[in-house]
UniProtKB/TrEMBL annotation:
GO terms for molecular function: ATP binding; ATP hydrolysis activity. It comes from the Eukaryota. Residues 150-211 form the ATPase AAA-type core domain. This is ATPase AAA-type core domain-containing protein. Transmembrane segments: none annotated. Pfam families: AAA (PF00004). InterPro entries: ATPase_AAA_core (IPR003959), Mitochondrial_chaperone_BCS1 (IPR050747), P-loop_NTPase (IPR027417).
Length: 230
């Protein structure tokens, strides 16, 4: 985020690259502008970066810097960690692009899936067992780290993604969906895992195919059909 004290009448944005809104704080008018910055080649693409520009009158500088910005940060923190915060679904970017200055390991979108354990069609006893296993209160009281790993194995369309969504909504965690086919090496994978948050679910789909150097179940079937035993 950058901010500047200027005459708002002089502020200009390129059509199609920014959206703006105005508000007021204790009598001071401020303008927020969402700006998409172009990459080094001067073209918009996968490596553009979005930032927020704050514009205000110079005579309101101390009010904005000393009171308004801390107010914005405080409210943002409350929203982020409230019970009604939006959960996020992260996907990893191609590791070959990591040399870019503005490279980010993860991209995200809001995760809005309605599934809960109450809606899941599964054995009641097994459902209760999973919910009890997701209870981290005992570990927190003992001061021990709480981690869980689940291997979901079944034919397509039988509820694996639904189970992950139910766990996410129950724990109020974000999801990091790791696509191993775009991970260059172990160092890149290590970097991805380091940049995940503590309250998150890490999902690796089709891990059996990826470990064999394959890219998808369809590829696995194709390889299986073309291999001839000695």
């Amino acid at each position: 985020m950058d901010y500047r004290g200027v005459n708002p009448a002089r502020a200009r944005t390129t059509p199609g690259t920014a959206t703006s809104l105005s508000t007021e704080f204790r009598g001071a008018a401020v303008w927020w502008t969402s700006v998409v910055r172009e990459n080094s080649q001067g073209q918009q693409g996968a490596h553009t970066r979005q930032c927020q520009r704050l514009t205000f009158h110079k005579h309101d500088r101390y009010l904005v810097v000393d009171e308004y910005l801390p107010h914005v940060r405080r409210k943002g923190h409350e929203i982020l960690f409230s019970n009604h915060r939006r959960r996020r679904l992260y996907t990893n970017n191609k590791s070959g692009d990591s040399f870019q200055i503005n490279y980010r390991a993860w991209s995200y979108t809001d995760f809005d899936h309605p599934t809960t354990f109450d809606m899941s069609a599964m054995d009641t006893a097994k459902k209760r067992e999973i919910i009890d296993d997701l209870d981290a209160s005992i570990y927190r009281r003992a001061g021990k780290p709480w981690k869980r790993g689940y291997l979901l194995y079944s034919p397509p369309g039988t509820g694996k993604s639904t189970m992950i969504a139910a766990m996410t909504n129950y724990l109020d965690y974000d999801i990091y969906d790791v696509e191993l086919t775009v991970v260059k090496d172990n160092n890149n994978l290590h970097r991805l895992l380091i940049e995940t948050t503590s309250k998150s679910i890490i999902v690796i789909e089709h891990i059996d195919c990826c470990l064999d150097g394959l890219t998808s179940p369809a590829t696995a079937r194709r390889h299986a059909s073309t291999e001839v035993p000695p």
